[in-house]
Amino acid sequence: MSIDMPDHSGEIMTRPASYAIGLLHEVQPGAELADYLTGIDATLQPFGGSFLVHGGSPQVMEGSLTCDLIVIGFPDADGAQRWYHCPAYQQLAVLRRTFAQGSVILCRGEDSDHRALDILTRSEVKS
Questions:
Q1: What's the confidence (pLDDT) of residue 50?
Q2: CA dihedral 49, 53, 54, 60 (to 10 degrees)
Q3: pLDDT, tens only, 73-118
Q4: What residues have CB less than 8 Å from 6, skipping those under 6 apart?
Q5: Which of 60, 57, 63, 55 has its CA nearest to residue 102?
Q6: Measuring CA to CA, which residue among 123, 15, 23 is closest to residue 77?
Q7: Which ranges of the chain does DSSP label H, i.e. alpha helix?
């Protein structure tokens, strides 16, 4: 399920319900990178995934960021999981590991009525 919310202009936009986040470093340009970039969009399409952040120049306000940041949004809560585990992406993931190091994180988004204190009442919160 995707979540509708107003943007800064008051227009309704759809917020992704799950995310894949990549923190990649030591990215080596070359044929493998080009093959990966050529193939990834086709793996996202069946799951409704799209790039929200893909490199660029993030403005680090605190701490440091020494990697490339990638954020992919999916319209349903299990979309990121289903995409990551699909055979087409797993084949590309093997290729990605030949030219880059890093972490891939999958997470669900929050409902639009989520408030910061809600985290304290969740059973998954560790003391």
A1: 95
A2: -160
A3: 999 989 999 999 999 999 999 999 999 999 999 998 887 888 888 8
A4: 12, 13
A5: 55
A6: 15
A7: 31-44, 79-85, 87-96
Place of tokens 């969009």: 41
Sorted by where each starts, the structural domains of the chain and their CATH numbers stand as 3-121 (3.30.70.100)
Nearest to 92 by CA among 16, 20, 2: 20
Q: How many CB atoms lie within 10 A of CB 68?
A: 18
Q: In angstroms, rounded to a whole number, what is the distance separating the alpha carbons of residues 24 and 14?
A: 27
**Residue 73 in contact with residue 19, Cβ under 8 Å?**
yes
E-assigned strand segments in the chain? 3-6, 12-15, 18-25, 50-54, 68-74, 101-108
